[in-house]
Amino acid sequence: MAGLELDGSNPDVSLLYDINGLAKAAPTWFDRVMEFVGEYGIMFGLVLVGLWCWWSMRKRGTAEDSVTAAAAIVWAPLAAAIAILINIPIRGFVERPRPFNDHEGLEVLIHGKTDFSFVSDHSTLAMGIAVGIFVANRKFGFVAIGLALFAGFSRIYMGVHYPTDVIGGFALGTAVALLLAPLAMALLTPLMAAVARSPRVGWFVRSKSAAVAYADEHGEAMGIPEPRPGSGRGDPGEKDLAA
């Protein structure tokens, strides 16, 4: 692979210079913004999108949808973490140097990168989270995937990754998030259902207003025992929704 990187006709290298060339032409303040956004900002944005998705989904009136959505939201960071772990042996096996070690004239915005280049951890992490959010909700998922794509672009812009490093990261994050999703959902959904029934941590899955709305519609108390007839807490058969 190293031989291909040194070949000037390699489109991977050509695209690297084209995208990184934008950093040379941009003003210094813009490069500093891209440096922060590419290194930290996009990851923070993905966390916000995930939290927004979770906050929105927990307000749904359907208990089953809320439980499934909560399981998917929990799966998003787990998928990204698993993808990063899988990338550790991949990096050690490929041992691809960073592009600035083999190519001159690059505008490197982030210094001190001494590890290997393939696969991009940032791209893997970002796409793993984004696809996990997509499993929970398509609307929020598309926003997250857009942020993940920009994260990959920023790594090339900053001169710390080849385009194929980024593509490989996207593929790894997507594969883990999608291929392991059925197993993850099978394990996490019962767990989230148990959490939803808990009077202490049930808020993580469903908001209080959603729980009350669901109980009013279906005549059920969410995780609260029914009063016994003649207990003095209401008419026989009446469900107590007080928390």
From TrEMBL:
<feature type="domain" description="Phosphatidic acid phosphatase type 2/haloperoxidase">
    <location>
        <begin position="72"/>
        <end position="181"/>
    </location>
</feature>
<feature type="region of interest" description="Disordered">
    <location>
        <begin position="221"/>
        <end position="243"/>
    </location>
</feature>
<keyword id="KW-1133">Transmembrane helix</keyword>
<dbReference type="GO" id="GO:0016787">
    <property type="term" value="F:hydrolase activity"/>
</dbReference>
<feature type="transmembrane region" description="Helical">
    <location>
        <begin position="67"/>
        <end position="90"/>
    </location>
</feature>
<dbReference type="Pfam" id="PF01569">
    <property type="entry name" value="PAP2"/>
</dbReference>
<feature type="transmembrane region" description="Helical">
    <location>
        <begin position="116"/>
        <end position="135"/>
    </location>
</feature>
<dbReference type="InterPro" id="IPR000326">
    <property type="entry name" value="PAP2/HPO"/>
</dbReference>
<dbReference type="InterPro" id="IPR036938">
    <property type="entry name" value="PAP2/HPO_sf"/>
</dbReference>
<protein>
    <submittedName>
        <fullName>Phosphatase PAP2 family protein</fullName>
    </submittedName>
</protein>
<keyword id="KW-0472">Membrane</keyword>
<feature type="transmembrane region" description="Helical">
    <location>
        <begin position="166"/>
        <end position="188"/>
    </location>
</feature>
<dbReference type="GO" id="GO:0005886">
    <property type="term" value="C:plasma membrane"/>
</dbReference>
<keyword id="KW-0812">Transmembrane</keyword>
<keyword id="KW-1003">Cell membrane</keyword>
<keyword id="KW-0378">Hydrolase</keyword>
<feature type="transmembrane region" description="Helical">
    <location>
        <begin position="37"/>
        <end position="55"/>
    </location>
</feature>
<feature type="transmembrane region" description="Helical">
    <location>
        <begin position="142"/>
        <end position="160"/>
    </location>
</feature>
